Amino acid sequence: MMFSLENITNSIHEWLYANLNATLALIIEFAIIGVLVIGLFAALGLVLIMMERKVSSWMQLRLGPNRVGPGGMFQTVADTIKLIVKEGMTPDRVDKLLFNLAPFIVMVIAMVVMAPIMFAKGFQIWDINIGVLFVLAVSSISVIGILIAGWASNNKYSLLGAMRSGAQIVSYELSAGLSVLAIVVLSGGLRMSTIIDAQQTGWWLFKGHIPAIIAFVIFIIAVTAETNRAPFDLAEAESELTGGFHTEYSGMKFALFFLAEYVNIFVVCAIGATLFLGGWMPFHIGNWQAFNHVMDYIPSSIWFFGKTFLLIFIIMWFRWTFPRLRIDQLLQLEWKYLLPISMFNLLLATVVAIAGWHF
Amino acid sequence: MGLRNYLSDVASGVKSLLTGMKVTGRLFLRHHKEKITQQYPDNKDTMVYPERFRGEVVMPHDDNNEHACTGCTACELACPNGTIKIITKFDVTPEGKRKKAIDTFIYHLQLCTMCNLCIEACPTDAIKMAQTFEHSVFDRSQLIKKLNQEGSKIREGVE
Asked: ipTM > 0.85?
């Protein structure tokens, strides 16, 4: 029997409903999902920060963290412990309620976006029928958390960073949405499982021809901007704004912002992997039966996480290659290049979908 | 801006971005072969100092405990932040002439920015930059150094 997360969840579900009444079983399922999401968050934070530090150091021909544990593997654990132990300071003249609320808003939104993501075959929190729309809608709320943080900090650098972040997310949400729409047009549904099923015969990146490739490139650029990462990290911009919206934050509240940034990267890359690289679908080549069979044997969760981490690596690659854009260059890139191209690309994708030119 | 310009803009932009990514991608792939950073506390014995690294100002003395400093105070005047203080005295030569010489060459390491202006100002190359860098001490008074050694005198023929 192959390892399958679907079977595990199904057997837990059946056991709960067989032994408890429906309400209690539902509550227990909620609790299990909550614990799993929080656990995934903690694990992602540790792994992604470690990955970022190692990728950056290798691209700059450095060693990177190498003191704590074998090859520095426990560096992020040590850092987390340090941040937990630190005092969660609230400066004197900030808006205390909003200041303390902001990191949790950013965090909760990153958690909510996890809901429609399909982590493996049949392993999903909520297969909502507007899955992609839900992700786009909810992920853009996170700018409110950043704006609250900037406003409540009572600090000009924080406010500047937050305002930049607002301008940035409002603009780049458009081209991210349009490039996602191209794939929605091709697969004919907003539901995550529909989109993945449409890629049974091949991933959209390969069988969607030019519109899918253009949409993929625009999507990657736009989500890099949406997650406030270099080269679009104007909201933080250490060298000009001393940290932007999280200038005044320290200890665990800062850690929540930091964690939310990395979880957001994971989420957008998971969406990208679902839309363009077939989610948990294994890699198949036409009629090579033997090859396809071997690929089928790899568990779907490994396919999903492998694709997601590949995209995360590409985004990290961006960060450690390109210098930061100025705010006018950032808006110019979006409004003069990405948006017109993605609008045209949506038209092209529609033509391809109607004419049935994709495989 | 015509459509042709627009498209060539996009193409050249993409090309330059890909060039950059090629560079970092290549470095990423060969990171295990080459490290450009010094693994400092680990390689203390085998460390290679870059040629132009500046650690502190020193005054070389030869075997006869002689230096080349005439006490002209050019370095003291050149120093932008008052790192060097030269106390001069007058030696009496055998012919009975009074000649200016240094009594104490005081160097405040804690004020020094390693700008190299004093070394360039020195007409007799009496001082130079050393490559030592482990300067931490427990009391800052230890950072005030006397560069001319006890009982040293100016080398014969240096004017």
From this structure: no
